[in-house]
Hints:
Elements: E1 14-27, E2 32-43, E3 52-58, H1 72-80, E4 84-88, H2 100-114, H3 116-119, E5 121-131, H4 133-143, E6 164-168, H5 187-194, H6 200-205, E7 219-224, H7 232-244, E8 249-254, H8 267-280
Parallel strand pairs: 3-4, 3-5, 5-6, 6-7, 7-8
Antiparallel strand pairs: 1-2, 2-4
Helix pairs in contact: 2-4
Amino acid sequence: MKTSIKMKKTKEVLSLITGIAFSNVPCWYDAARRDLHMDLIIPKNRQGHAKCPAVIWICGGAYMVVDHSVWMPEMVRFARAGYVVASIEYRTSNEAQFPAQLVDVKAAVRYLKAHSEQYCIDPDRIFVMGESAGGTMACLIGATIDQKEYDQGDCLEFDSSVNGVVDFYGLVDMEAVACKAGDGIPEWTMQAFLGAGYEKEQAERASAIRYINEKTPPFLILHGTEDSVVPIEQSRSLYEMLQKYGVRADYYEVEGAAHGDDAFYEDCMVDKIIDFLESIS
């Protein structure tokens, strides 16, 4: 059968760029170095294209493991909504203790600002989003916009501030973590992340809730009522602190949802996230 058809272009074609090196960091007991990478979803045809807002996605993994590509299928929804999506790698706790992870995420923000023309990004509309340990990092990025000590490495002529944060059940108050066997956060996880026998000062330093002030950008917080890993009180305390300082904060408790539950990636939830990002753009 031979048929002639006329097609109307109704959606933008996207490109996936993988393995972009955005930072070079120490590894193997500081005797060697390695690159950190990100994957990008961007418009395929960028010549003359309007600048797009960007979402930086940060994968979780108990601070011990990261796969910056694993969530990319779920990120396509954001790309279809007009966002450049960057999913980033950071050093895990077996490589370096905090604040190395925050240093890495800030480096990714600066890299995207430095290469905004190349990747069709509006540098004044960059948002950060993360789940679990990635939620910790997303919250820290948003809360430490005036903490210059964590800006290290390349592209230092650009700042690492972001315009909004989406936190999926991240730890935000390390002092309030009750480590236990079985369900919950085991002590060795925190020891690896913060250092063996870590002191109160180090726990405070890694707690986003300690940095919140009037300059903190808007937050969207998501947490399941059946989360047996990260206590829901973490998100409730974060919301209350944001309210205290008059910071825009939207908070959804997802009934019956466990830690890392698929419910957080339902279309209706993604729509709520996109609506939030649009409202603060």
